[in-house]
Amino acid sequence: MSEVKKDVTQEKNEEVDSILNELEALAKVVAPCLECTTCASACPVFQSDSQRNPRRLLNRLGRREFEGLLDEVDFWWCGACYSCEAHCPQGVPLAHVFFRLKNLAFHTGKPIPKLVLRTGETLRSGFLIPVKKEITEKRHALGLPDPVCPDTKEIETLLDATGFSGRIIQSRKLD
Amino acid sequence: MDRTPTTRFAIFWGCTIPLRLPWIEVAARKVLPKLGIEMKDLPFSCCPDPIASKALDHTTWLSLAARNLALAEEKKYDILTLCSGCFETLKIAQSELQDKAIKKSINDILKPIGREYQGSIRVFHIVQWLYEEYGLENLRQMVTHPLTFRVATHTGCHYMRPADILHTDDPVYPEQLDELCEVLGLEPVDYPDKNLCCGVGVGLVDRDITQELILRKIEGVHRAKAEALVAHCPSCIQTYDAGQMMLYKSRTASITPVPVFHYLELLGLAMGLNANAFAFEEHRIPIPEPAVRI
After folding, report:
1. Which CATH class is domain B8-125?
2. Do B60 and A149 count as a contact with CB atoms less than 8 A apart?
3. Among A61, A128, A148, B106, whose Cα sits 20 to 30 Å from the Cα of B215?
């Protein structure tokens, strides 16, 4: 019994180490940031809601304030338009960094925005939009053939092999 | 210089075009063969999308993209896509899979389904193909019925960024779509917020921001006195077409909706195809008759 407990603790410690390592690697990626605010000016989300400031999140990472960083929801507001990256005078790959934070949040069981989680659930069918009878009929009415669908067994095999299916179930429980 | 463009393609339709906006597929199936494109359908899955799917598990995202690429490789087809999201995913995946260690680990995942990614094919976006492969001069020669109205073009983020991987238009001041419209006789206007993101990505967490971005975009289009918006990314088109209608019907904001064309519809009309060849009735914002009268 104590052996099992030890294993679980050890596994947990390894997981924490690996998250810290990844955050440390990201801190190095954002190190060239000069805090010039160009990214925020170029961000369409920040232009609408000044609470969602990509620079603030970046700087927190750069200062290695890792505590609670993955609970910070701002990175989910990044719509991946890459406008910040196109404008950044230091070539900091901001959208890439935000993707890594989203990935880490998913991997560590943080709550995932509903529509993002739904996308993950739907992926199992092969498409992000279900192939319903209505759309097939609509396509026929427009003179289009049936949609060509992938073999869902192949997709399911891949999603199971990467552990994706299991993680989606865990995230759904949190939802 | 005369160069024969690549014309034999597996068409990567993605999810949104065939299952949400099939009127774009109608236009493509009418117009692309007239440009000499041989179209093959393959059982591709979702690319997967470069916003939500990519936000979850990167390895899964890359594996599914590699499967799609492997499928085209097996049949020896280059890929032509009409969706900017699919384009971005497949191009980024190809770029990442150049790393031998990553390629090996992804191929280990693909092994149980009997597929292997090689890295042997090219991926084109339709706008990139028209601009770089087919060429403006060849396109000009196809125009028999020039169109003469003012349009505001919207290139969309995922066609041109990240620029160091996609290598298409300028990532901050895109011009290709304007030039492609000019060839058809159209008058592309300069307008405020021309390069503004449609907001579909942030819409996953905050629909209010998407609506604000739609309103900003449409206000700019009106200020430049353009009669229509021209786009090619299915997500942008859906955001502007259905999004404007939602704003209009809900009366939460004052908006005079602007019709949204897919570029291939305008190209087809300029090539002399009858308006009946398209599914203009499927647009949420009605297409004004004079615009499509030949």
Report:
1. mainly alpha
2. no
3. A128
Total number of residues shown for chain B: 294
Domain ranges of chain B: 8-125, 142-292
Mutation target to probe the A interface, by most A beta carbons within 10 A, among B68, B154, B204 is B204
Among A51, A83, A109, identify where a domain stops.
Answer: A109
A141 touches chain B (CB under 8 A): no
Task: State the architecture of B142-292 in CATH terms.
Answer: 3-Layer(aba) Sandwich (3.40)
B204 touches chain A (CB under 8 A): yes
A77 shares its domain with A150: no
Nearest C-alpha neighbor of A79 from the set B175, B111, B112, B236: B236
Q: Does residue B50 belong to the interface with chain A, where contact is any CB pair within 8 Å?
A: yes
Cβ contact, residue pair B63, A161, below 8 Å: yes
Distance from C-alpha of B209 to C-alpha of B200, rounded to nearest angstrom: 9
Q: Are residues A5 and A80 in the same domain?
A: yes
Residues composing chain A: 175
Q: Does A163 touch chain B (CB under 8 A)?
A: yes
Asked if residue A7 has pLDDT above 90, the reply is no
Of A65, A85, A109, the position where a domain reaches its end is A109
In chain A, the number of structural domains is 2
Q: Quick one: B132 exposed, middle or buried, by C-beta within 10 A (0-12, 13-18, 19+)?
A: middle
What is the per-residue pLDDT across A108-162, written as a single tens digit (0 to 9) for each? 999 999 999 999 999 999 999 999 999 999 999 999 999 999 999 999 999 999 9
- Are B53 and A87 inside 8 Å of each other by CB? no
**Do residues A153 and A174 both lie within one domain?**
yes
Which residues 141-160 of B have a C-beta within 8 angstroms of A? 157
Q: Residue B171: list chain A partners with CB under 8 A.
A: 82, 86
What is the residue-averaged pLDDT of chain A? Answer: 93
pTM summary value: 0.96
Helix intervals (H) in chain A: 2-29, 38-42, 44-48, 54-62, 83-87, 94-107, 114-122, 133-141, 152-161, 164-174
What confidence tier does A12 reach under pLDDT thresholds 50, 70, 90?
confident
Residue range(s) defining the domain that contains residue A81? 1-109
Residue among B51, B112, B197 whose CB faces A83 most closely:
B197
Note whether A14 and A88 are same-domain residues: yes
Query: For B151, phi and psi rounded to 5 degrees?
Result: -130, 150
A-contacting residues in B 75-114 (Cβ below 8 Å): 109-110, 112-113
Q: Do residue A9 and residue A62 come from a single domain?
A: yes
Segments of chain B scoring below 70 in pLDDT = 1-3, 290-294
Burial of B47 (0-12, 13-18, 19+ CB in 10 A): buried
User: Mean of the per-residue pLDDT values for chain B?
Assistant: 96
Verify whether the Cβ–Cβ distance B44 to A150 is below 8 Å.
Answer: yes
Cα(A138)–Cα(A146) distance, integer angstroms: 10
Residues A144 and A132 in one domain: yes
Q: Tell me if chain B has a CB within 8 Å of the CB of A159.
A: yes
Q: Are residues A125 and A66 in the same domain?
A: no
